[in-house]
Amino acid sequence: MRIKEIVSALERSAPLALQESWDNCGLQVGQLDVEARGVLVSLDVTEQVVVEAVSRGCNVVVSHHPLLFHGLKRLTGASDVERAVIQAVKHDVTVVSMHTNLDNAPGGVNWKIAEKLGLCDVDFFARKNVAGIDCGSGVVGTLPQPLEASDFVALVKQTLEARCAHCNDLLKRPVRKVAICGGAGDFLLSDAIREGADAFITGEMHYHQYFGHEQEIQICVVGHWETEHFTSELLRDIIRRECPGVVCELADTQTNPVKAI
Description:
The chain has about 260 residues and is an alpha/beta fold.
């Protein structure tokens, strides 16, 4: 199967029209009209991820976060991005990224988080319509049973493999309705409150946004990588379902640059 067929399958699940205006989804490096020998899926693209792909006989890397957010004026190996690009070009590895198009797509990143948490009746909040597609940057759902706030935070940490959670004061009422925006999702906090959510899960939030919501909503911020590392599973499952016969595996390389010490 040619790489362009794999990319077409990914874009059917997460159309490029759904990406945010500042983003750079889709083909990053390489060629599409060649045979795919294997696909390695990773949240991020680093030099080490490309080297792993080569060592495992894969000539395609599919990531959530784009390798190229900004244009490159030179390729000297001076930065981590330059080194990853050099490795990809040197070894004929094609790099494709599905970022905010996958965030916004039905069944995308936030839906996967909701699935992992066991939420019911999941749907978009702050929804929008782009190119005739019902979409949104966040989802809301309900826990099968209400949980005390401390138990809810513990569930989130365990499920998302987070060492800690940044929270406001714990709610004194049970948590049942949960809003989610993986990654840097603090821009949806007000929408989550308007939606009537008891809790809001995201990966990053500015300091001042924690103020003023005491007993209004349970803020639970657990880290960018922690809320998005399941994206690799999502991308792998799309490829395996839509491109039978293509070897597709998750990368072993750990790319989270944030260390809890």
